[in-house]
Structures are given as structure tokens and as C-alpha cells.
Amino acid sequence: MGLFSRQRPRHARRQAEPAAERAEPAAETVETVGPAAETAGRQEAGASAYEPEVVQGEVAASTRGLAKVYGHGDARVVALGGVDIAFEKGRFTAVMGPSGSGKSTLMHCAAGLDAPTAGQVFVGDTEIGALKDRQLTELRRDRIGFVFQAFNLIPTLTAEENILLPLSIAGRKPDPAWYDTVIDTVGLRDRLRHKPSELSGGQQQRVACARALVSKPQIIFADEPTGNLDSRSGAEILGFLRRSVDEFGQTIVMVTHDPVAAAYCDRVVFLADGQIVSELLSPGREAVLETMSHLDEMARARRESLPSGV
To answer: What's the chain's Rg over C-alpha atoms?
Structure first.
């Protein structure tokens, strides 16, 4: 059965913790799959590359043979080279890699924001490549939540109106009990009547997180959600995302370059040159930093080996 058959012990769920308290969690780095140096060597030799972790539980989203190519001829760039991955329901996954590794492209294709060149993308059991434009729009609206680095709030709407906007567009009313839970969890009860210009960056991102959660999506994709925040506000957002997984069973896939952010996750997947090359389960910051440093060194060596002007 390949991708969905091999079993592995389940991780222990983390509790949300301030970043400072997780500075040296080396003992929690329980497994590294396909070390970057070994898998890179296999890729250069033309052999089969890294085999990703196989989830045991329900799959929230997955890709099979996902490829994305931009441009043609001499301008052709392979952003993804046949990626197989499954994101388990109720789990917090980080996607990391050097600049140009394909991590944002993977998220955009998995979320239905960009069309792959080849391969399949599934949200639950639904293959999104088979959907018409209107069906895809409805799937993104009803089953996927988004949190972006730039907040993407409408400046003329209040915090509450921004939070409820996806439901309003869909003609749905919020579940009152769930809405109250979300608002209290993100700590926005006294800011609901404020417009984005009256909120701090951290508060605006909390509005964006609440907007993603309020419709009870099957999966949330977060693209550098702490990239525009200071360390304190970033830790608050990461703690909230961690709680939404632990307490509400939410599924989150987060693209990040920050080892501290990745250490809040259950699983970290590393990309290089459009391929998954390694991953960590229950990661610590130092283990993430070590893997990223090695991948950055490999990427730098490849760039330096290219002929001038390439």
C-alpha cells in the first residue's frame, strides 16, 4: 500500500509553551527520518529519495506525485519534483527548507491556491484537481482555513466582522458556543469593535487566526504566520495554534523559516530542491536548527558549483 501502509509509533502531544522554555529540548527529538546528507547523496546518484512518514490516523490532506514547474526552455524551474506527503488530522506540521526549496509552492498547491503541473492533491478524500472552479472555491471557503504573514484583514471592517467574513460570504451563521470559545481563546473579547488600524500586529494576527478557526475547517494552512511579529507576539500566536491542535483537534500545516516556531509542532518536514529530504518528530529547536544549517550549506555549495551566470 506504500504511502499509507507503513506504521510508526504515535507522537506525544505537546502543550503550548513559551519559546524561551523550549530553548534546549534535545531530549524530545525522538526521531529523524532520512538524514539530509544521506538522502541528498541518494538523489545525486539517481536513486529513490526520502520516503516520508506514513500516518496512522485519518488524513486531512495529502499529495501524490505532486510536481510544479514554472517557465519553459532555459527559464524552466522545477519547484516541486514529485512530492508524496500526508498530513494527519489533529496534528501540527511545519514545512521548512532553504530559500527556493519549494515549501511555499507545496503549501499553495496543497491548499488549492495554485494548480500543480502533475500529480494529485487531496483534501480528505476529495481530489481537488477534479473540481470545477466554483467547487474549488467552495472547498477552500468551507473546508480550509488560511493564516498569512500579511494578516489580510479588510481595513474598513471591525475585528468581529473580519472574523465572521468567510461565514457571511457563505451565507452561514456562526455556532454561538464555538464562536465564544474561539474569541476567548485568542483573547479578543474587548477588541471586537476595533478596526485593524486600531490593533497591534499581534492582535491583527489573532483576528486572522480566529477567522481561520471559526468555520471549523478540516485543515488550516499558515504561511509564515509570525513573520511580521515581534518575538513576544509571535510566541502568543504559536501558543494559540498549539492549543487549537491540542484542545480542539485542529489540523495545521505551517510554512516557516524559524526553528523556534517549528519547535511548537509535532512534525517538521524539510524540503530541498523540490523534494522532501528529511523530517523530525516532536522536534526541539536545536535539532531543527542543525538540520536547517546543513541544508543551507548544501544549497550554498550547489549554487557555488554552478557555472557563472547560471
So the answer is: 19
Could you tell me how far CA 127 lies from the centroid of its own chain? Answer: 19
Report, at the CATH architecture level, how domain 27-51+90-112+130-305 is classified: 3-Layer(aba) Sandwich (3.40)
Listed as own residue / partner, the contacts of 83-86 with beta carbons closer than 8 Å and 24 or more positions apart are 83/119, 83/271, 83/274, 83/275, 83/276, 84/3, 84/52, 84/276, 85/52, 85/269, 85/276, 86/3, 86/4, 86/52, 86/54, 86/55, 86/59, 86/61, 86/62
Cell digits for 207? 483576528
Tens-digit pLDDT profile for residues 211-255: 999 999 999 999 999 988 899 999 999 999 999 999 999 999 999
Helix, strand, coil tally for the chain in percent (to 5): 40, 20, 35
Q: Which of 112, 200, 207 is nearest to 158 (CA)?
A: 207
Q: Rounded to 5 degrees, what are φ and ψ at 206?
A: -65, -35
Distance CA 64, CA 71 (A): 22
- 263: exposed, middle or buried (Cβ count in 10 Å: 0-12, 13-18, 19+): buried
pTM listed for this prediction? 0.81
What is the share, in percent, of the chain residues with pLDDT greater than 70?
80
Query: Is residue 15 over pLDDT 60?
Result: no
CA distances from 2 to 5, 36, 228, 265 (A): 6, 22, 40, 25
Distance CA 128, CA 135 (A): 9
Locate 20 and state its grid cell.
524561551
Reported residue count of the chain is 310
- How is the chain split into domains, by residue range? 27-51+90-112+130-305
Q: Is 200 left (phi over 0), alpha (psi -120 to 50) or beta?
A: beta
